[in-house]
Specification:
- With 205 residues, the chain is an alpha/beta fold.
- It has a single domain, classed as Rossmann fold (3-Layer(aba) Sandwich), CATH 3.40.50.12420.
- The chain contains seven helices and seven strands; from the N terminus they run βααβαββαβααββα.
- The chain has a seven-stranded mixed β-sheet with strand order 1-2-4-3-5-7-6.
- The longest helix is centred in the last third of the chain and has 16 residues.
- It is globular.
- The termini are far apart.
- 19% of the residues are buried.
Length: 205
């Protein structure tokens, strides 16, 4: 079955090191994700990444595989451990994101643990496919630290219906995506902004 290009791919990969998976699970993952198209997929990945990035024989990846299903300006939204932000394999993912997407938003929280069973910090990253280097370079990447639990930020009330709940969630999403200015601090969240070109230059140092 061929899927139509997707506007968004949302993923929360498991927090499991590849070495901890048995052969059956590795084969299952490889068979499930094997595709003819290798668009956007790097040829080589170094280091020892976790399951969310490294699948099988260095060419099947959650991130890269997911990107193949996107339309020309489709979004990737990933909820992952934050370790890839400061590791050797993470540098490769960062470069790939900078060279193939506009990174719209990176979120973490100091107010709550989103996954109590995971003993790692969690980040949410939203990025949109983009083939124009000029657009990518000018893109303002927003880094946001939440200072209140999500339920407080949503402004949800007890017994509200699904439509109202979704509207509250959407309103917070839109607020975070449209944050302006280089830096701000509030009792709700802090944010800083850097252009993607400057972020790329920092990564080269």
């Amino acid at each position: 079955m061929t899927l139509a290009p997707a506007a968004t791919v949302v993923c929360n990969p498991p927090y499991v090191a590849l070495r901890r998976l048995g052969d059956d699970r590795k084969n299952e993952a490889a068979n499930a994700l094997r595709q003819d198209s290798k668009a956007l997929v790097p040829n080589v990945l170094k280091g020892k990444p976790n399951y969310h990035l490294y699948f099988w024989f260095y060419h099947l990846y959650f991130w890269f595989h997911g990107a193949q299903f996107l339309d020309d300006e489709g979004r990737l939204v990933f909820i992952t451990s934050g370790e890839w932000l400061d590791s050797d394999f993470g540098a490769q993912l960062q470069r790939w994101l900078l060279e193939n997407t506009v990174i719209e938003l990176v979120i973490e929280s100091v107010a709550e643990t989103w996954f109590t069973e995971a003993r790692v910090g969690t980040v949410v990253l939203c990025a949109r496919r983009c083939s124009s280097q000029a657009v990518r370079d000018a893109n303002p990447v927003k880094f946001t630290t939440l200072r209140l639990p999500l339920a407080n930020l949503y402004g949800c009330v007890a017994d509200e219906d699904d439509a109202d709940h979704i509207a509250h969630v959407d309103a917070l999403r839109d607020e975070l995506l449209t944050l302006a200015g280089a830096f701000s601090e509030t009792n709700r969240f802090d944010h800083s902004t850097i252009t993607q070109a400057d972020l790329f230059a920092l990564g080269q140092r």
